[in-house]
């Protein structure tokens, strides 16, 4: 009986800590993302989800539009390529997968303070995801450089062709 009370309390504390972790990291990412958009160089694409869905069905633009629609997102000005990384790599939008995407980009050669912050948060707060992060970094290293491509110019290209060309 004492053992079951201990285990019950232990699992209750664990689940509470996981919820607190997600809330903390989510709020931190939200804040840093807003700051990142303000300082990021580049020109917004000025394309809506609806406009992306008007691209041919086999195109990168259409697949990006579907991703945005599925997640109830709109393109974030000057950061539109971030969602393309999700589309091409298959990383989801939960916190651990967002961090894994940053590890992929690091392995692919991208360097930025935001990326370093996300990776640091991953190391500190997601020790249960180390294997995922390591695999993402290796996958990024093995892939040809994609982090600095002009994806706006590739929106009309066939999605499957781009995915096979850039993601192993």
UniProtKB/TrEMBL annotation:
It comes from the Bacteria. This is Coenzyme Q (Ubiquinone) biosynthesis protein Coq4.
């Amino acid at each position: 009986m004492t053992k079951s009370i201990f285990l019950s309390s232990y699992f209750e504390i664990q689940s509470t800590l996981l919820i607190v972790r997600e809330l903390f990291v989510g709020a931190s990412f939200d804040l840093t993302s807003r700051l990142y958009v303000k300082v990021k160089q580049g020109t917004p694409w000025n394309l809506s989800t609806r406009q992306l869905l008007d691209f041919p069905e086999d195109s990168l633009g259409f697949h990006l539009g579907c991703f945005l629609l599925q997640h109830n997102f709109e393109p974030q000005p000057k950061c539109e390529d971030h969602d393309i990384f999700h589309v091409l790599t298959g990383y989801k939008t939960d916190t651990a997968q967002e961090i894994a995407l940053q590890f992929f980009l690091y392995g692919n050669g991208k360097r930025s303070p935001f990326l370093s912050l996300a990776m640091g948060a991953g190391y500190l707060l997601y020790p249960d995801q180390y294997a995922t992060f390591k695999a993402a970094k290796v996958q990024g290293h093995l892939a040809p450089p994609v982090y600095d491509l002009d994806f706006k110019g590739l929106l009309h290209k066939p999605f499957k062709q781009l995915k096979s060309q850039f993601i192993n």
